[in-house]
């Protein structure tokens, strides 16, 4: 069972969470104007015409109020996101979750893969899910290549690990087969009270997806956010996604306060900022692996292109 030995922070769930859960359709109104404007921009609204807070809220009502009407492609995008998620099995047998964020790089938690030695002995299994007969079919297991790229941040900072995955049997990058979930540094992908979705391997079991009946409870600070959703040990390192299946956070851990489960995730904007700074530091790049420069630049470019 993989759990962080120290939390990033204890989310202040409870009374605030209860308010969001009781009236999720109105929770977005408590967001800052800056986050509202970023959200409006991402949803195609002309913010130059929304000069006042009242005008902005009026425009957002139409966007947020229609979120239960989803296009048919929503299911296709969900499936595509799930394809990029893998079960991570450590050398000691404990399991976590990871997901491809570029053709070669997988993201997970530091407390799942804390160093290169552990990563070198770990395996990742894609398509680890049951069919209609509750049988595992078509799983693909790959090794990791930390010598090519391994970047990590401690549990009490970003609880992040990025590591290269070996090629598939055809010699191609794993992302060519399973796709990837780009990490977009731009903010405003989701507002408080909106649903979030998590694709995960709880307790090492076949792939599970928690969708829709989960809410963003708070944006805590520049690094973390808190949401309600069903997760278990083994879900560590799972992607937290918006209803547009955009990556909004890296799942870190769960905390329960006053009977309310609050899950803490590391914001993607904080992760991208961290990697961008590392990519501009030759000394740190040299320590990150033989292909770290190329692979991290590719990771950042994919995120920028998806914005």
Structure description:
With 307 residues, this protein is of the alpha+beta class. It has a domain at 78-182: Trypsin-like serine proteases (Thrombin, subunit H). The protein is built from ten helices and 14 strands. A hairpin with a 4-residue loop joins strand 2 (95-100) and strand 3. The longest helix has 15 residues, at 292-306. The radius of gyration is 19 Å and the shape is globular.
Break the fold down into its secondary structure elements and pairings.
Blueprint: H1 15-22, H2 24-27, H3 33-42, H4 53-64, H5 73-83, E1 85-89, E2 95-100, E3 105-108, H6 116-120, E4 123-126, E5 140-143, E6 150-153, E7 160-164, H7 175-178, E8 197-200, E9 208-210, E10 215-219, E11 224-228, E12 239-241, E13 247-257, E14 260-267, H8 268-279, H9 282-287, H10 292-306
Antiparallel strand pairs: 1-2, 1-4, 2-3, 3-7, 4-5, 6-7, 8-9, 8-12, 10-11, 11-14, 12-13, 13-14
Helix pairs in contact: 3-4, 8-10
Number of strands: 14
Could you give the distance between the termini? Answer: 36 Å
Q: How does the helix and strand content classify structurally? A: alpha+beta
User: Quick one: biggest sheet?
Assistant: 7 strands, antiparallel
CATH architecture of the domain at 78-182: Beta Barrel
Sketch the topology as an H/E string, one letter per element. HHHHHEEEHEEEEHEEEEEEEHHH
Strand content: 15-25%
Spans of at least 5 consecutive residues whose pLDDT stays below 50 are none
Strand order of the largest sheet: 5-4-1-2-3-7-6
- Secondary structure: helix percent: 25-40%
Per DSSP, the total helix count is 10
Which CATH class of the domain at 78-182 is shown? Mainly Beta
Q: What is the alpha-carbon Rg in Å?
A: 19 Å
Q: Any idea of the CATH topology of the domain at 78-182?
A: Thrombin, subunit H
What's the CATH superfamily of the domain at 78-182, by name?
Answer: Trypsin-like serine proteases
Rough outline: globular
